[in-house]
Amino acid sequence: MQDKILTEEHKMFKEAVENFLKKEAVPHAEKWEKDGIVDRDIWKKAGAMGMLCMDMPEEYGGMGIKDFRYNSIVTEAMIKLGVGGPGFVLQNDVMAPYFETYFTKAQKDKWLAGIVSGEIITAIAMTEPDAGSDLVGTRTTAVKNGDHYILNGAKTYITNGILSDLVVVVAKTDPEAGHKGMTLLLVERGMEGFERGKNLAKIGMKAQDTAELFFRDVKVPVENVLGEEGRGFYYLMHNLPQERLSIAVGAVAGAEQALEDTLTFVKERKAFGKPIGKFQNSRFKLAEAQTEITIARSFVDECILELNEGKLSNEKAAMAKYWCTEMHGKIVDDCLQLHGGAGYMWEYPIAKMYAGARISRIFGGTNEIMREIIGKSMGL
Ligand SMILES: Cc1cc2nc3c(=O)[nH]c(=O)nc-3n(C[C@H](O)[C@H](O)[C@H](O)COP(=O)(O)OP(=O)(O)OC[C@H]3O[C@@H](n4cnc5c(N)ncnc54)[C@H](O)[C@@H]3O)c2cc1C
To answer: Which atom of ligand 1 is nearest to the CA of 364?
Structure first.
C-alpha cells in the first residue's frame, strides 16, 4: 500500500509484522519448503503477536477493528519476505468474514478465540475433482437425519488441507435446487469418516499444504451449519470480492519484490563490459514493470478503501484480481529473463516467485471467470 493511505498505527503494525516474520518465519522458510508444510508453532506465535483475524471482537482476542489495511499489511509482508507458507492470509482474508458474519454465538464461543490465537487452523473446501469454476456442479451431499447431517463427498486442492482443524465444507443439502440447495457445514478434525489425502506436490508455494479431503458418512451435528441451510452459495458469492482483492494485493506486492530484486541483480551482473541494466532492453522492461506496478498500486489501494467502506463491487474486485495477477505473471517472467540462467535456479528468489505467481491466475476464481463477471456487469 502507498504510505499515503496508512496512518501511524498502520505503520507501527507493519514494522512489528515485518520484524516478527524476519525473526520467526524467514529462518524456517527453507525447511518448510522441503517439508511441504509449516510447523503449527508459527501459527500460535503469529496469534500471540496479534496478526491473525485482527478484525475479530476484542472479547475473542482480536483488535475489533474492521480495516482491510491491516490484513493487507500482513499479506504484503509475507509475500515480500518470501514466507508465504503459513496460510495466515486464508484465515485472515478469506475465512474471517464467514466467522464474523455467520457464526452463531455458540459457534463464536466454541471456536473464535482459538482461531484468533492460532490454536485452530481453518480451511474452506469448495473445489471437487469434478467441480471447480462451476460450483453448482458440487457433488458432495449432506442429508439431514434428525439432529445431524450425513456428509459424503471429496474435495481437492484445499489450502491448509493437512493442518486445518475446522473446515467449511460446501455441500448440497437439496441436490434438485441448484445453487439454492447448497449449504456450508463446519467439519471438525477427528470427526469419524473425515479423512485427508496426501499433501499435494505443487510447482510453487511449496511450503503451504494443499490437500484432498474425503468425507464418508461423516455425522455433522445441525449446530455445525454455518448460517442457514440452503444459503451457502449466497454466502460464497458475498465473500468472494474480499478474497479476490486479497489476491490482487499479493500480486502487486509480488511484482514489487520481483522488480526490487531484479534491479539489484541487473546493476551488479555485467555482460559485454557493462551492467546488464544499462542495455536498452533491460531499461525498457524494468520501466514498463515500474509503470504497471505504479498504476496497479493506485487501483488496488482504491479498492482497499472501498472495501473498508462496504462499497467494493463484485466486478471491480474481479478487475483487480484479473489485471493485477496477469501483470504479476508478466513481470516475474520478464524479471526471470533478466536473471539469465540464474533465474531458472531454485536458490534464486525470482525462480520461486515465478512458480508461486502462477497460481494467482487460477485460484479465487480463474481469470476467465473474472472476465465473465466483468462482462456480465456490462450487460453482456
Ligand atoms: C494451490 C491451490 C490452492 C487452492 N486452494 C483452494 C481452497 O483452499 N479451497 C478451494 O475450494 N479450492 C482451492 N483451490 C482450487 C481452485 O479454486 C480451483 O482450481 C479453481 O477455481 C479452478 O477450478 P478447476 O481447477 O476445477 O478448473 P476448471 O473449472 O475445470 O477450469 C479449467 C479451465 O477452464 C476454464 N473455464 C471454466 N469455466 C469457464 C467458463 N465459463 N468460461 C471460460 N473458461 C472457463 C477455466 O478458466 C480454466 O482455464 C486451490 C487450487 C490450487 C492450485
So the answer is: 17
Name residues contacting ligand 1 (CB within 6 A): 123-127, 132-133, 157-159, 202, 205, 210, 359, 362-363, 365-366, 368-369, 372
Percentage helix, strand, coil, to 5, in the chain? 60, 15, 25
Convert the pLDDT of each residue in 24-39 to its tens digit.
999 999 999 999 999 9
The dotted CATH code for 233-377 is 1.20.140.10
If you take atom 31 of ligand 1, which residue's CA is the nearest one?
A: 133
**Domain segments of the chain as ranges:** 3-120, 123-229, 233-377
pTM: 0.98
Q: Which amino acid is at 270?
A: K
CATH number of 123-229: 2.40.110.10
Q: Ligand 1 mean position to 244 CA, how many Å?
A: 13
List the one residue out of 345, 330, 235 whose CA is nearest residue 292: 330
**What 8-state DSSP symbol labels residue 277?**
G
Q: What is the largest CA-CA distance in the chain?
A: 79
Q: pLDDT tens across 167-197, in order?
A: 999 999 999 999 999 999 999 999 999 999 9
The CATH class that applies to domain 3-120 reads: mainly alpha
